[in-house]
Amino acid sequence: MQGPETRRSLLVQIQDVSQHTAWQEFVTIYEPLVYRLARRKGLQHADAQDLTQDVFTTVQTAIHRFDPDAETGTFRGWLFRIARNLMINFLTRQKEPRGSGDTRLLQMLHEHAAEESEAATQFDLEYRRELFAWAAQQARSHFSEENWQAFWRTGVEGESIDQVAAALGKPPGSVRVARCRVLAKLKHYAQQMDDTSISPKG
Hints:
Number of strands: 0
CATH architecture of the largest domain: Orthogonal Bundle
Number of domains: 2
Largest sheet: none
CATH superfamily of the largest domain: RNA polymerase sigma factor, region 2, helix turn helix motif
Radius of gyration: 20 Å
Distance between the termini: 20 Å
Number of helices: 9
Mean pLDDT: 78
Low-confidence stretches: 97-101, 195-202
Structural class: mainly alpha
CATH topology of the largest domain: Rna Polymerase Sigma Factor, Chain: A
Helix content: 55-70%
């Protein structure tokens, strides 16, 4: 199944250097993904941070060349390839790759297409988690603690509506309404980033 894809409107906005809010929202979601990718490939903390900055510098200068209508794959696939290529360049510049401690890392990056595919899949899954976390942070202030817990406990932690209603001292119908309202707000914020929907458990 194809994963959620970054909204075209956001890709247009981040091409404009004056759109600081759009760029910051973009970095907030994607920066941890690139950093964790670098760490999983064996880079030390400082090197992973440097590579992450290099990736976003490259994105900022090259984003105008990304064509969402071309048959070149998704934006996240494009971003993943930038990160991977810069990682290879970084490691091949080192006589003894810092942060890996093992020259086999280069062979893995160059030769193991299956592992790259797995990493790309993980990159996409982690994007979804970051998107949810960002949307939840934006939506949280719009609701009382009780209503937020009604959503969180049923939609995220997987408790039944009846269990949560009893714990909160609310009718089950009120828990359902609160859950729906929070979910609608989460979708509103998530759709600022891409066209996917956030669905709770159950």
